[in-house]
């Protein structure tokens, strides 16, 4: 509990939980110590450390991490603490190296690094990245040339997992230049990186080298290739990769289904799911989430109920992600009552399922139920977020509740500390336009603290069509086309309706 509160940034809550404990063991002391360290409270970390009845290596590591945080300085630097440790693990070395890197002491960091008793991927990654960031390219290259073979893949994975996909690609190319043959993990990691940074040329070259090495039929690599091509919308390549796998497992099937769903081919995804079932491959919760995504593009109640039954037969209907996905899917089908049944069965009420339920009410024209449900969420201690208020404002718009919508728009920031976005302002424009307050809608577009999107002008244009205001409607259509010239049909369709209403 202490660790969870501290990880969420609630250091006051962690302190209260720690103070209220009738007895404290080494685990609770260490959790409080780490809580302070992770939140930049070095002095408090040291105070807890010196009050502990005994110290293990984890406690020492936490104190070293705390000593590197900016703003507060301890009497002893990371090196002194490191030397005082009665015992060390790999985390001790990495923590000390990282501490020196954070404080800009790269030479001291290198001194500790050179004393490493064994290869540690985190330590190599930290120091190489620090050299690169500080412009010491020669030192970074020198470390790369010394790096043991087993660490290349670990380093590539470390870069990718820390959203450094470009660095992962660079290291992979360096690995090839060194004459090192990548393994399956290296290939899957770098394929994912290619997909993230849209490196199409590199991805296709790597695919060719995988084929030359005879690895393209491996399930792990095939699923990564499918995922990469899915991000680029390359359906032919996806099917070509899949067809080469002799006996695709659940991971490969799921990648194919997800790729179809992601690219708007819902029926192909459902057909693939049926083929997978016919071949006796058991789906997991990830598979079903992809199938739910596919159904969302073709929301048919019968299909959704059959899918829900199959999920129940696999004993996966209590999986949180699946419950949220099914809730949203029933909403798209207009089955709000079924969505509410799923919501009521959730073990805990969180902002994600709560917002999904709000959206279900709002999208299906149940404005007053949306507002009642929002009040229930707040009473249950769920803090509303950005998307929550989008549903609220949308519900007010469709129900014609102008004053209520304005109150929630103001309350959003004042009472809940949720910052307005361009989407919230667009909802307000729609609220005014639907209610015939066209002048207020246009004034809001001109005064919002963001560059208006074409959707705001289209909302105004729709209002002008409903209330027969030609001059303002033409102006709105013109601005919508200026902002998004590729979306040519919507303004003209609305203008056509506008002219028709004025005949």
From TrEMBL:
<dbReference type="InterPro" id="IPR011990">
    <property type="entry name" value="TPR-like_helical_dom_sf"/>
</dbReference>
<feature type="repeat" description="PPR">
    <location>
        <begin position="249"/>
        <end position="283"/>
    </location>
</feature>
<dbReference type="Pfam" id="PF13041">
    <property type="entry name" value="PPR_2"/>
</dbReference>
<feature type="repeat" description="PPR">
    <location>
        <begin position="89"/>
        <end position="123"/>
    </location>
</feature>
<protein>
    <recommendedName>
        <fullName>Pentacotripeptide-repeat region of PRORP domain-containing protein</fullName>
    </recommendedName>
</protein>
<feature type="repeat" description="PPR">
    <location>
        <begin position="148"/>
        <end position="182"/>
    </location>
</feature>
<dbReference type="InterPro" id="IPR002885">
    <property type="entry name" value="PPR_rpt"/>
</dbReference>
<dbReference type="Pfam" id="PF01535">
    <property type="entry name" value="PPR"/>
</dbReference>
<feature type="repeat" description="PPR">
    <location>
        <begin position="319"/>
        <end position="353"/>
    </location>
</feature>
<keyword id="KW-0677">Repeat</keyword>
<dbReference type="GO" id="GO:0003723">
    <property type="term" value="F:RNA binding"/>
</dbReference>
<dbReference type="GO" id="GO:0048731">
    <property type="term" value="P:system development"/>
</dbReference>
<dbReference type="GO" id="GO:0009451">
    <property type="term" value="P:RNA modification"/>
</dbReference>
<dbReference type="InterPro" id="IPR046960">
    <property type="entry name" value="PPR_At4g14850-like_plant"/>
</dbReference>
């Amino acid at each position: 509990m202490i660790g969870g509160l501290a990880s969420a940034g609630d250091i006051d809550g962690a302190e209260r939980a720690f103070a209220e404990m009738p007895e404290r063991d080494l685990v609770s002391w260490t959790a409080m110590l780490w809580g302070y360290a992770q939140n930049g409270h070095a002095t408090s970390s040291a105070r807890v450390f010196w009050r502990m009845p005994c110290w293990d290596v984890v406690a020492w590591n936490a104190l070293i991490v705390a000593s590197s945080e900016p703003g507060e300085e301890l009497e002893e630097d990371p090196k002194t603490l490191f030397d005082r440790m009665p015992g060390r693990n790999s985390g001790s070395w990495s923590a000390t190296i990282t501490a020196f890197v954070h404080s800009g002491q790269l030479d001291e960091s290198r001194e500790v690094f050179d004393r490493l008793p064994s290869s540690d991927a985190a330590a190599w990654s930290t120091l190489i990245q620090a050299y690169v960031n500080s412009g010491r390219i020669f030192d970074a290259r020198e470390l790369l040339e010394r790096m043991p073979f087993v660490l290349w893949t670990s380093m590539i994975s470390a870069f990718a997992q820390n959203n450094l996909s470009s660095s992962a690609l660079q290291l992979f190319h360096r690995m090839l230049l060194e004459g090192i043959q990548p393994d399956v993990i290296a290939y899957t990691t770098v394929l994912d990186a290619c997909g993230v940074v849209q490196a199409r040329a590199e991805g296709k070259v790597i695919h060719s080298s995988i084929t030359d090495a005879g690895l393209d039929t491996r399930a792990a690599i095939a699923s990564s290739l499918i995922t990469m091509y899915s991000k680029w919308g390359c359906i032919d390549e996806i099917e070509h990769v899949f067809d080469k796998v002799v006996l695709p497992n659940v991971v490969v099937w799921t990648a194919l289904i997800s790729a179809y769903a992601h690219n708007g081919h819902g029926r192909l995804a459902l057909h693939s799911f049926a083929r997978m079932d016919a071949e006796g491959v058991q789906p997991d919760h990830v598979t079903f989430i992809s199938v739910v995504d596919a159904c969302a593009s073709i929301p048919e109640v019968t299909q959704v109920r059959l899918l829900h039954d199959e999920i129940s037969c696999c004993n996966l209907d209590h999986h949180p992600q699946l419950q949220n996905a099914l809730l949203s899917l029933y909403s798209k089908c207009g089955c709000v009552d079924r969505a509410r049944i799923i919501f009521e069965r959730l073990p805990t009420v969180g902002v994600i399922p709560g917002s999904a339920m709000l959206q279900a009410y709002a999208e299906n024209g149940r404005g007053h139920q949306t507002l009642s449900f929002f009040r229930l969420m707040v009473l249950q201690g769920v803090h509303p977020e950005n998307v929550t208020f989008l549903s609220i404002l949308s519900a007010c718009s469709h129900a014609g509740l102008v004053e209520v919508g304005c109150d929630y728009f103001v309350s959003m920031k004042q009472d809940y500390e949720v910052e307005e976005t361009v989407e919230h302002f667009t909802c307000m424009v729609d609220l005014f336009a639907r209610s015939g307050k066209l002048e207020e809608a246009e004034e809001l577009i001109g005064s919002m603290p963001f560059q208006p999107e074409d959707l705001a002008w289209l909302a105004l244009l729709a209002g002008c069509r409903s209330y027969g205001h030609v001059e303002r409607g033409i102006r709105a259509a013109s601005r919508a086309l200026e902002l998004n010239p590729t979306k040519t049909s919507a303004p003209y369709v609305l203008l056509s309706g506008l002219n028709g209403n004025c005949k």
